[in-house]
Design a protein that fits this description.
227 residues; alpha+beta; 5-stranded mixed β-sheet; extended
Length: 227
């Protein structure tokens, strides 16, 4: 009957008020605080804590509070990787005392944004690029890692003699062959299989975690050729 206009107007006023309140508080200083990503077990623990707290009665409810505290402790103690590498080896991010430094100012924005967000870092990609911690020239980008380790991203097209040294993570997407030496070497094939990876230096040794789920690999995917 054409009488719905008044109802939609009232609804629009309510929605507009909600959006204006949200916009006001979002614009306040400190309205957004990022926190580092925790271990996968953190969210299940928080869910269990909520169930215990709201479903149980009496002193048993304190069990939910204890589980919640345990989740916060695990979350707080979750370390972030010392090195992140994207799926084609073009973007790397190295953790420094001032936050993660990136080797790209604008390219690969999605991956860079996810990395910084997971670090609990509110910096933009350009700000992370401007941080110190990387040594770059026309063909190479290097950085120091904990416990004497180092990462080197080589953009040359041919294998460089003597480039593979001890305590070195060497990333060379354009190299077809593996160089001689004791380094950890990653070429385009291994990067493609892992879809990128992270490195954490634990007790002096690198722990490598691929971005791809190892259980999802198929027989035709091949194996990781990192030594």
């Amino acid at each position: 009957f054409g009488l719905d206009g008044a109802a939609w107007w009232v609804m629009g006023q309510g929605i507009g008020w909600i959006l204006s309140v949200a916009d006001y508080f979002a614009g306040l200083d400190g309205s957004l605080t990022l926190v580092p990503t925790g271990r996968p077990v953190v969210l299940p623990l928080i869910g269990i804590a909520g169930c215990l707290f709201f479903l149980l009665r009496g002193p048993l409810r304190l069990g939910g509070a204890l589980v919640f505290i345990a989740a916060l402790v695990v979350w707080h103690q979750t370390p972030r990787p010392d090195l992140l590498v994207n799926d084609n080896g073009a973007l790397i991010g190295v953790m420094t005392p001032n936050g993660r430094v990136l080797n790209k100012e604008h390219a690969y924005r999605f991956a860079a944004g996810v990395w910084l967000e997971n670090d609990g870092d509110s910096a933009t990609q350009a700000q992370a690029f401007a941080r110190t911690g990387l040594d770059s020239d026309a063909l190479q980008t290097g950085a120091a890692l904990p416990d004497g380790w180092r990462v080197s991203l080589d953009r040359s097209k041919t294998v460089q003699t003597g480039a593979c040294r001890a305590n070195l993570i060497l990333i060379a997407p354009k190299w077809e062959g593996r160089p001689d030496g004791p380094c950890l070497f990653f070429n385009a094939r291994s990067l493609n299989i892992m879809h990128g990876f992270s490195v954490s230096i634990v007790e002096g040794a690198p722990v490598i975690r691929p971005a791809a789920d190892p259980m999802a690999r198929r027989p035709w995917s091949g194996s990781i050729s990192a030594d």
